[in-house]
Amino acid sequence: MKLESPVVTVDKSSQYLFESLTDVKNFEKLMPENIAKFEVLGDDIFNFGLKGMPEIKLRLKDKTPYEQVILSAASDKLPFSLIANIKENNAQSSTVKLDFEGEFNPMMAMMIKGPISKFLESLAQNMQKL
Question: Is 54 exposed, middle or buried (0-12, 13-18, 19+ CB in 10 A)?
C-alpha cells in the first residue's frame, strides 16, 4: 500500500528541513492536534500515539542529505516506511512530499487508509512549524 501527502511549499531551505527532520524530537511539532502521546526514546527513535489508534514507534532508517529522510516502524507487526522527499526551490524555499509505504493485508489496508491519509496530510501541513 502506498499513500502520498499533498506537496507543500515551506519557507525553509532544503538543508534546514533535512536537518530538522533527522532530529526525531522535531516530529512532535508536526503531529496532528489529536496526538495522545509523544516520547523520544533515543537519538533515532520515537514513540507516538493518536487518539483511538495504537502507539507506533518510528526509527530513523536512512537519509540522503538535503533530499530524503526515511523513517520505518520499529515493530515487524506493522511494517511500513514514512519517506520525506525534499526538493529545494531556492535558498529560502523548498517543497516536501511525504510517502507512506507499507505491506498490509487487504482488510488492514482498508481500515487504515483513511486515518493514515489524514495523518500524512497533517504532517505535511505542519512542516511550516519547523
Answer: exposed
User: In angstroms, rounded to a whole number, what is the distance separating the alpha carbons of residues 79 and 70?
Assistant: 13
Cell of 120: 500524512
Cell numbers of 81, please? 516506511
- Mean pLDDT, rounded, for 78-91: 95
Which cell goes with 109? 489496508
pTM equals 0.95
**Count of C-beta atoms within a 10 Å radius of residue 129:** 12
CATH topology of domain 2-129: Alpha-D-Glucose-1,6-Bisphosphate; Chain A, domain 4 (3.30.530)
State the Cα torsion 126-18-50-78 to the nearest 10°: 140
Please say whether the beta carbons of 77 and 57 come within 8 A: no
Nearest to 35 by CA among 52, 56, 51, 54: 51
Give helix then strand counts, H and E, for the chain: 3, 8
Contact by Cβ (8 Å): 73, 79: yes
